[in-house]
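new request in #modeling-help
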Amino acid sequence: MAISTDTKRGRALGRTASRRATEVVVRALVFACGWLAIVILAAIAVFLLTNGLRSIDEVGLGTMLTGTSWYPTSNNAQFGFLPLILGSLFVTGVALVVSVPVGVGAAVYLSEFAGRGFKEVAKSVVEFMAAVPSVVYGLIGVAVLIPWVRTTFQLDSGMTALTGGIVLGVMSIPTVLSISEDALHAVPESLRQASLALGNTRWQTTYKVVVPAASSGIFAAVMLGLGRAIGETMAVLMLTGNAAVMPTGVFESVRTMTGTIAAEMGEVVRKGLHYSALFSVGLVLFAMTFAINLAADLVLERQRKRWRR
Amino acid sequence: MNRVQRARFAEKVAKTVLGLMAVIVLVTAAAVFIYIVSKGYRAISWEFLTTRPLKLGREGGIGPAIGGTLWLVSLTAFFTLPIGILAGVYLSEYAPRNMLTRSIRLAITNMAGVPSIVYGLFGLAMFVMLANFKVSALSGALTLACMTLPVVITVTEEALRQVPQDLRHASLALGSTKWRTIRKVVLPASMPGIVTGSILGLARAAGETAPILFTAAVFMSPQLPRSPLDRVMALPYHIYAEVTSVPNWSENLIWGTALVLVAGISIVSVAAGVWRSIQRRKIRW
């Protein structure tokens, strides 16, 4: 009897020990995976920097950032990022003009005026819009928007900053809409009721109380839409015509930072100067989107703290 | 007009204008959907889905591209799911409330905002060149895995947080260790949310072009890759390459390709959503 109890206890102890060991191993593994996000983000920055180093050394970061001509393949190669940065900004500007009024307006309607059924339908529709791949938006732009822009504005070519911007705007609507709606939804119901009880109409409540209360969240939504638009590649590559010159208006062909990387990386000599310059373009793009996302995140965090219930 | 009338009028105008914005969104989405279907359905046939492209894709099918995309997505899932789920477990179950955790969260939201082409550059430098996996399905999948990681982490953390503390306490009180509690109680209870969220993330990855441009994609390949170290055709890349570099590309076939891609993503996403709501009904706390 005594022996068998001891054996049982011994086995139980062995099991406990092995479970403790598992616990330690799993803990280490879970911690490693948890920290991996920081590692990957840092690795992206490091790889962009080390691969771009040659161009930063030979051309100089200041020269590249302020240079106005991008002739990467000529004998006297010029690596000025300004036409590309401006190209991205032009396209993104058009995209914001499309996505902000529509996205924020629709979000306010859905959150403050729409019935439940309409809301449900709209939610699935927005999910569908977000799920359509950018290359398919690009294809639709090629088939529909390029001819439309050419004939409507009587241009020689329909591949312009405007064309890319409109499609990009449509693509960023889901981002702007859903984050704005979250922000509006987070405003406590009691605020609305207090305003309505004072005799305000729904619309007065909306623009005097609800929208100001959600303003930082809506701002963050616009920022994230901007970040998404500036980083988009395939649609702009297919629609803007990719002329690497200093843009002067939205009716001209422009070449964005993303489009430049995508179009040229396939043909460059690995580890060459041009290759390195494209990584530097990537670094600039990364820095811009990083700053935008960081700002949006801080704003959202503040909003969350404000309405924490 | 007196004040009340003015307020009523403003109410009407505002409601109409805002409603119009919502309608614009719905109409745009409907137009996109109808356009893709109406342009693409004629191309769809068994032959189109299974045979290889001929004459630079102007004729024939897209079998290798469908297969290549499935390869990429499966490999991506293989890398991203275990790591992403464990990272979600860390944030929900293990992470202390301190600056490090805060910076991890910040890193995750920021990863989600990194442009896809930048992931492409990273994949080129890290997996194609440094790790020397060459341009291959493996390099592309690892790149896509980095990109989908924030999605998997976020949905896992959210799903785990939905599980009531009582269940954890009950399991711990019975003498379970923390990991056993997570493995036997918390993870099974949150599986519907994790699986569905991850599938949505992977479906998005299937439609990405920029990350695989210089890490995995090949314009033409007569057959499916035999190993992860082969280059692959992929549906989104096929559309891009045809439209931009093949003169007189076949509209019919490319819209068919777009329809296959969009329908595939939509069907998988909807199925995942339906499955989740069925599973949710089974679990009650």
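bot summary: Strands of chain B lie at 53-54, 59-60.
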